Amino acid sequence: MRSATLTSDFPGLSADRTAVAIDGHVYEDASQYPVVRSAAIAPRFFETFERQLLRGREFTPADDVEAPRVAIVNASFAGQFMAGADPVGGRIRPGRDKTAPWLTVVGVAPDLYLAGAENFDPAGVYVPLAQSQERGVGLAARVSGAPLALSASVRAQVRALDRDLPIYAPNTLRRAVDDSMWAYRVFGPLLVVVGMAALFLATIGLYSLMAFAMRLRMREIGLRMALGARPAHVARLIAGQVTREVGIGLLAGGAGAAGLARAMRAMLFHVQPGDPFTYAAIIVALVLAAALAAYVPVRRAIRVDPTVTLRAE
CA 300, 301, 306 angle in degrees (round to 5)? Predict the structure, then answer.
């Protein structure tokens, strides 16, 4: 075993939320208090998860119930609520009870997915486990070799300390995070298939609509050609119309897609609702479909003798 620690919440599995007051700020009512993630951790927590503090120090065994109350904030908390000031040395107070003691910030940690896989609200606070009132904690250990192979020896060590202390569900963090993300694995591919089918149908529909619209203008194109219009002039005329119509459709569809994407934010992992690559790929596919739908009939009309086109119409 290379390193071990105790924690109330594991990274990637979502920690509890708590209101926090920042020293120097005035809160007129309860709704103004920031609500952030909170975890109680023992010394060597960041060492066990192979992370280094950005500033300050980690908790030590000296941060017990008799010591001054301290806390560590993560980078998102510092940037969101303590910007413009040095977080280390500042004070925060968990909860909305104004009589509760202040905690002195002794360190700034990197973000470790306290909000779970979604990580919508990554701002978080760590407090020493010895200074908290947590009843249930987890043991995190970094080992060499198969992690679960040490389950029996860990149980034996715990029984040696307290025979009545239970141990539940030993697991690897990777597997625990994978289990918590079952919805992504189930619905993610399904949504991709549905999205690709919708894009395919939209592309076919757009092609058919534009081809039909161009077919209706065959007589007009033939008349223009008969009156001396050059093929390049006709092509530019049609391209301008197609561009206007497709542009209006893309703007309306993009606005609707952006709204729906925000509503589906819970299903997007490491993808922002306004992901530019996704929007660009869809726009390119639709524009190519519209261009092809306009190009094929116009090219055919331009090559045909105008008198033949007019006679057919």
Answer: 135
